[in-house]
Write a structure and sequence with these properties.
The chain is an all-alpha fold. The protein is about 70% helix and about 0% strand. The protein has helices at about 1-15, 20-30, 40-45, 50-60, 75-80, 85-95. The model has no long low-confidence stretch (mean pLDDT about 95).
Length: about 100
C-alpha cells in the first residue's frame, strides 16, 4: 500500500494528475479501492505521511534494488513539513495563482 501511495506522489510530481483527488477517483472507480477509505491519497493523509515515508525508507534499505521504495520528492517535502497532502496541495494552488 505504501508503494502505491508513493507512486501517486510521483504521478503528481510529474504532472500526470492535476490533483490528488484525481488519483483517488481512478483507484476507487477503476480499480475497486474501498470508497470508505477515500482513495489512496486521502488514506495516506489519515495514516500519516511521515509514517509512510519511514516505512518506505526501511523497505528501501532492506531491498535496495527495488525502485518502488525510493521516496518521492513530494512525499519527502510533505513529511518534512509535517503536513497532509491535502493541505500542501491547497496551499500550492493558492501560491501558483499569484
Amino acid at each position: 500500500m505504501y508503494a502505491l501511495v508513493n507512486e501517486g506522489f510521483k504521478i503528481l510530481e510529474e504532472g500526470i494528475a492535476t490533483r490528488p483527488s484525481d488519483i483517488d477517483v481512478v483507484y476507487i472507480y477503476g480499480y475497486g479501492f474501498p470508497p470508505y477509505l477515500g482513495g489512496p491519497m486521502h488514506w495516506a493523509d489519515t495514516v500519516g505521511l511521515g509514517k509512510i515515508r519511514d516505512a518506505l525508507l526501511k523497505y528501501g534499505r532492506l531491498y535496495p534494488k527495488q525502485r518502488q521504495f525510493e521516496v518521492s520528492k513530494l512525499l519527502n517535502t510533505c513529511a518534512d513539513r509535517k503536513t497532509t497532502l491535502a493541505k500542501y496541495w491547497k496551499k500550492r494552488g493558492k501560491e501558483s495563482k499569484l
